[in-house]
């Protein structure tokens, strides 16, 4: 019956309604510990769609759960109704008024992208969450988000001027500031839901007993971050209820209401002038957290714009994170805690002076032992490390995780040291410890105890800790929620926090606004027990999964479970980085790394099949993963989705057979070897429109995609037969081995030749061993057993000749980096140690030349002095596992060469992905995000550099421009 009604609803919407199990599963979780299967997922196209959904919910006794980025930590966007995702369609910046300092937006506008729009006008929206590059304004209003700079800019509530919204009966309303006379007129208006809402709040907040109770029970006014329940304490301090105060505005109540009162369609925000241009971070090192919090009280006397805590647990996590380990440069020794204190001033001299005075004050008090002051790009690295805290905490390899349970408590800054000591005493009773990080400057430390929620004991402990800490927070007159909201996690404790009378007032407000409970029910009021509807069922048994890849210290399932839902994979190309190219192009939740981890977790945990991988649903969600490896470095939880996809495909093939195309691509090297017998014939066939069309159709390749040609000679044959005759001059003293990968061997032979010649001219003795292919193509198609054979052989061969004095170099990133990435976990168990040792001495040729230049072994005098501008596109795996900066440094060896790194993510080709007919359009769409426009807009004479063979092919097909390998450019610049 309901299915029929949903089908009828889908027909009435201009947007999309998903009722399939896959999409419902992907929206069953957010960034919290909760999971509940929704009835459906709606992507409304416009306001009329929203009205249709509201009408449906009322008629069918179901609900709507508003959702944007889905990064809520307390289960705010989890529910059994219709998830209503406005992140793809309500994304417009509607109006900006520079003179009055405000902007009007739809709820799906991303916070950082709003500031990109405002910056040229000299303005800025202040509240900055750690998720700011994907967090959306609608969600920030719903949670009343703050951020690290809240000591200056406050919360979203302080910036919310006006909203347009739909009420629970479909009425369109506007809520904004109004004087007392206007407020009373609203209360006496026609008998509409809007009028009843105004009447209810007037009656309640005019009641002296309610006023007394609110002022007595709600958190201290001195606590800037207080998000407990609906903000009636804030509304009470407005005219007409309190004389001499600001005008009444329902926006104060709507901020932090978690979508339970109305559905927002437009949001008007106050914006501030840009902060002073100079920012400095004083990164104060302490022996322990207690010392840092006592220092924090003194720090606040110096009016910083932020004071953020990072404890030693997070600092330890950064050591093993590819991206964040680069951001530890300022850390001296192993501090117990670091306070990152930000000062914004007009000059560095002003910051240096105030930082010096603060340091003197703290040293005099015996607080802190190292006080580095950092400016410029270094500050971005430190904030990136601090913001990565949440994701890094998910990077624990087993079932024990740093769980969000009491992570959002806020107390007065002066109470913070005592509160944290009491807090840790409670944890010690249960033999637990917590991670401490975040907003010391505003009295809110994110505290996460390490608990295994898969066990009965862990589930009960989850609740017990919440109960005890709620009592502790009440003792300090604090707020159980500072910025993450109440949601499912803290809702049941609101009565304890504000008292019975106030809690009944909150219920009155909810059911006056939403009499039929259709907007995000069971949040804030009437919330079920906080240890129910969790992602993990207490006592659940972990399945035994036999995998080809080794997953160190964990299982494959546990690796997927490292994803905590923080949604870093939802950032767009405007924020930079590689992860996640398919999402950047489609903006579909299904195409995020998070969705892929969620689908794997669901089926690997709950499948009843003998082969738990044998599910078409998993295949469909993983299909658009380009295996770019962006998630391995950019996801703070280090979820390696490419590795997970490869493993999945092997087991899926076991159940369903290997498709012809996958076999052909996997056997690329063998097929190329056969075609290389007569390369001219092969090239003629693929370049002929008729025969080339037949080949594409047979292989399942896109008709518009050009096919790679073969060189007239293979690199190996040239090296063995021609190079000894062509070589001029004696070989250098330093021996290096060049890996003859299958792509360079057959297709890009010229690049391989120039690599050999370049290294020789620079004074190196180039060797080439007899070795098999890299097996990159086999791995990409999930043919892991076959790939292991080649990996084993390569490790055996090179372990005997490669060491710290004799490196192995490669030209093609995807092939040579296999030695550092996949091989250590792919090879047979007895070869793992050898593979790890070998990996330490395997380098991209770009890395090697850049390092040799740093040592002074290669100098600018060896290259031309002519001017040349180069635009460089880094290969995805190079950026994830190494850095495009090595290519930039190498290409900058000629004195007058200027190298501009294109801020592109994945090119879109991703090996065979862009050849495949069903992926071609998406592949080109990804290229159009950043790369293709950057190439087309290059000034005449600019060279385009790209280390990856797929990248160069994509640039040619997408723009008609021939991109060069950096080796070619550097070779041509030799004198």
Provide structural commentary:
By secondary structure, this protein is an alpha/beta fold. Helices cover 42% and strands 12% of the residues. It contains 46 helices and 25 strands. The strands form 6 sheets. It has a 7-stranded antiparallel beta sheet with strand order 15-12-14-13-17-18-16. A hairpin with a 4-residue loop joins strand 5 and strand 6. Helix 24 (593-606) runs antiparallel to helix 25, helix 34 crosses helix 46 and helix 40 crosses helix 42 (884-891). The model has no long low-confidence stretch (mean pLDDT 95).
Write down how many β-strands occur, each being a DSSP E stretch of 2 or more residues.
25
- What percentage of amino acids are in beta strands? 5-15%
C-alpha Rg (nearest Å): 30 Å
Assembly type of the chains comes to single chain
List keywords for this structure.
single chain; 975 residues; alpha/beta; 7-stranded antiparallel β-sheet; 5-stranded antiparallel β-sheet; 46 helices; 42% helix; globular
SSE diagram, text form:
Layout: H1 2-12, E1 16-18, H2 21-26, E2 40-43, H3 47-59, E3 64-67, E4 82-85, E5 93-97, E6 102-105, H4 111-118, E7 123-124, H5 137-143, H6 150-153, E8 160-166, E9 172-176, H7 180-187, H8 193-205, H9 208-217, H10 232-236, H11 251-254, E10 263-270, E11 272-273, E12 278-286, H12 289-299, E13 306-311, H13 312-319, E14 337-345, H14 348-364, E15 373-375, H15 377-387, H16 389-392, E16 401-402, H17 416-429, E17 434-438, E18 446-451, H18 456-475, H19 487-490, H20 494-498, H21 500-513, H22 556-561, H23 581-586, H24 593-606, H25 616-622, H26 630-634, H27 641-656, H28 660-666, H29 668-675, H30 679-687, H31 689-699, H32 715-726, E19 734-738, H33 742-746, H34 749-761, E20 764-767, H35 776-780, H36 784-799, E21 808-810, H37 813-816, H38 823-826, H39 832-839, E22 842-844, H40 845-854, E23 868-872, H41 876-881, H42 884-891, E24 897-901, H43 920-929, H44 931-936, E25 943-945, H45 949-959, H46 966-972
Parallel strand pairs: 2-4, 3-4, 19-20, 19-21, 21-22, 23-24, 23-25
Antiparallel strand pairs: 1-2, 5-6, 6-10, 7-11, 8-9, 8-10, 12-14, 12-15, 13-14, 13-17, 16-18, 17-18
């Amino acid at each position: 019956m309901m299915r029929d009604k949903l089908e009828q609803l889908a027909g009435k919407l201009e947007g999309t309604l998903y009722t399939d199990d896959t999409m419902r599963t992907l929206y069953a979780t957010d960034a919290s510990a909760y999971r509940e299967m929704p009835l459906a997922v709606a992507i409304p196209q416009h306001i009329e769609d929203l009205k249709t959904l509201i009408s449906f919910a009322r008629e069918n006794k179901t609900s709507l759960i508003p959702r944007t980025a889905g990064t809520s930590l307390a289960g705010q966007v989890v529910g059994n109704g219709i998830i209503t995702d406005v992140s793809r369609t309500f994304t417009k910046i509607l109006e900006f008024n520079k003179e009055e300092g405000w902007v009007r937006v739809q709820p799906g506008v991303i916070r950082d992208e709003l500031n990109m729009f405002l910056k040229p006008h000299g303005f800025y929206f202040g509240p900055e969450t750690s998720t700011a590059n994907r967090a959306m304004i609608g969600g920030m209003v719903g949670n009343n988000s703050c951020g690290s700079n809240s000591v200056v800019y406050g919360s979203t509530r302080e910036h919310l001027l006006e909203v347009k919204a739909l009420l629970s009966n479909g009425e369109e309303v506007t809520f904004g500031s109004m004087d007392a006379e206007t407020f009373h007129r609203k209360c006496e208006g026609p008998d509409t839901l809007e009028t009843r809402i105004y009447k209810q709040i007037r009656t309640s907040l005019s009641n002296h007993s309610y006023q007394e109770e609110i002022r007595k029970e709600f958190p201290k006014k001195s606590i800037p971050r207080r998000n407990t329940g609906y903000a009636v304490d804030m509304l009470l301090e407005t005219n007409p209820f309190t004389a001499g105060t600001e005008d009444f505005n329902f926006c104060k109540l709507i901020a932090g209401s978690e979508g339970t009162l109305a559905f927002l369609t437009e949001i008007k925000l106050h914006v501030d002038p840009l902060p002073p241009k100079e920012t400095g971070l004083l990164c104060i090192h302490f022996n322990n957290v207690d010392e840092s919090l006592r220092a924090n009280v003194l720090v606040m006397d110096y009016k910083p714009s932020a004071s953020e805590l990072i404890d030693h647990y997070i600092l330890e996590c950064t050591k093993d994170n590819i991206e964040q380990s680069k951001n530890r440069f300022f850390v001296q020794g192993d501090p117990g805690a670091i306070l990152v204190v930000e000062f914004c001033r007009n000059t560095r001299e002003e910051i240096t002076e105030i930082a010096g005075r603060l340091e003197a004050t703290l040293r005099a008090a015996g607080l802190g032992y190292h006080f580095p002051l950092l400016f410029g790009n270094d500050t971005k690295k430190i904030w990136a490390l601090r913001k990565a805290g949440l994701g890094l905490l998910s990077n624990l390899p087993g079932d024990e995780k740093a769980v969000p349970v009491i992570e959002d408590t806020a107390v007065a800054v002066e109470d913070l040291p005592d509160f944290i000591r009491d807090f840790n005493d409670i944890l010690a009773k249960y033999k637990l410890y917590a991670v401490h990080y975040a907003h010391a400057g505003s009295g809110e430390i994110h505290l996460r105890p390490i608990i295994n929620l898969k066990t009965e004991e862990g589930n009960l402990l989850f609740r017990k800790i919440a109960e005890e800490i709620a009592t502790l927070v009440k003792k300090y007159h604090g707020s159980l929620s500072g910025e993450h909201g109440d949601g499912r996690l803290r809702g049941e404790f609101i009565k304890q926090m504000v008292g019975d009378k106030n809690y009944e007032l909150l219920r009155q407000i909810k059911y006056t606004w939403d009499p039929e409970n259709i907007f995000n029910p069971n949040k804030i009021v009437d919330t079920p027990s906080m240890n129910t509807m969790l992602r993990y069922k207490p006592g659940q048994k972990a399945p035994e999964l036999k995998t080809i890849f080794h997953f160190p210290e964990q299982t494959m399932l546990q690796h997927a479970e490292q994803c905590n839902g923080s949604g870093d994979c939802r950032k767009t190309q405007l924020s930079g980085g590689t992860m996640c190219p398919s999402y950047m192009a489609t903006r579909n939740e299904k195409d995020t790394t998070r969705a892929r981890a969620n689908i794997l977790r669901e089926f690997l945990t709950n499948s009843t099949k003998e082969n738990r991988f044998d599910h078409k649903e998993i295949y469909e969600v993983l299909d658009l993963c380009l295996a770019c490896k962006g998630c391995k470095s950019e996801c703070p939880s280090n979820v390696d989705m490419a590795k997970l996809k490869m493993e999945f495909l092997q087991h899926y093939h076991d159940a369903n057979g290997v498709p012809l195309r996958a076999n052909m691509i996997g056997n690329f090297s063998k097929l190329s070897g056969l075609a290389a017998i007569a390369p001219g014939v092969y090239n003629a066939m693929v370049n002929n429109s008729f025969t080339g069309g037949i080949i594409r159709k047979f292989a399942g390749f896109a008709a518009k995609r050009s096919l790679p040609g073969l060189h007239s000679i293979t690199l190996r044959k040239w090296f063995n037969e021609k190079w000894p005759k062509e070589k001029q001059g004696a070989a250098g003293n330093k021996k290096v081995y060049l890996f003859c990968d299958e792509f360079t061997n057959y297709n890009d032979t010229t690049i391989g030749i120039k690599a050999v010649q370049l290294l020789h001219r620079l004074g190196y003795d180039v060797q080439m061993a007899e070795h098999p292919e890299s097996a990159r193509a086999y791995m990409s198609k999930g043919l892991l057993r076959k790939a292991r054979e080649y990996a084993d052989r390569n490790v055996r061969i090179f372990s005997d000749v490669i060491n710290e004095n004799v490196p192995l170099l490669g030209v093609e990133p995807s092939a040579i980096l296999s030695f550092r990435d996949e091989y250590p976990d792919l090879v047979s168990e007895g070869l793992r140690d050898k593979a790890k040792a070998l990996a330490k001495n395997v380098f991209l040729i770009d890395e090697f030349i850049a390092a040799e230049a740093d040592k002074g072994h290669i100098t600018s005098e060896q290259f031309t002095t002519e001017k040349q501008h180069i635009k460089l596109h880094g290969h995805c795996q190079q950026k994830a596992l190494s850095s495009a900066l090595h290519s930039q440094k190498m290409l900058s060896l000629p004195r007058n060469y200027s190298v501009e790194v294109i801020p592109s993510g994945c090119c879109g080709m991703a090996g065979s992905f862009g050849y495949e007919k069903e992926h071609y359009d998406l592949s080109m769409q990804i290229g159009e995000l950043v790369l293709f426009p950057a190439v087309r807009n290059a000034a005449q004479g600019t060279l385009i550099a790209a280390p990856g063979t797929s990248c160069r092919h994509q640039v040619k097909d997408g723009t008609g421009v021939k991109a060069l390998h950096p080796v070619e450019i550097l070779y041509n610049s030799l004198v």
